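Task card 7
Instruction: Convert sequence to structure tokens.
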Amino acid sequence: MTSTDFTVVVIDPAELKAADAKKLAVRDGDEPWKLAELRELVATLNDDAQRLAAEYEGVEHDLDDLLHTSEGAGDDQADIGSSALEREHEMSIVNNTRDMLEQTSDALRRVRKGTYGTCASCGEGIGKARLQAFPRATHCVTCKQREERR
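Output:
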């Protein structure tokens, strides 16, 4: 395995200005983002990114160790099956952690570009409450429901 092959994005919340908050999309009926809300959200995303990056490196290292220590020489079929299951489980954890880290970094990039809060499907506001509950969201509730029905 290789170490992280993508860049972990971090934004200093103190560098954000009121203009950064005002340019973010909001859903009809929502109040515009306040600077304090944006800073809190960015701090949460930063914490998630740092936690996930550390977790990713740890599980990636565990998987690498597992791949190198389970060569299978002399193992019976039950041991081979158990080792394969354990490798599959570790690979799943590595992939899920990497995906969450990429989503978190993408959310921070969208904050930096001023496109955070805009639905990737319809272009409308996602909704502040949804983003505060799930900061990595890229779709409004309506578009996400439509996507999941497919």
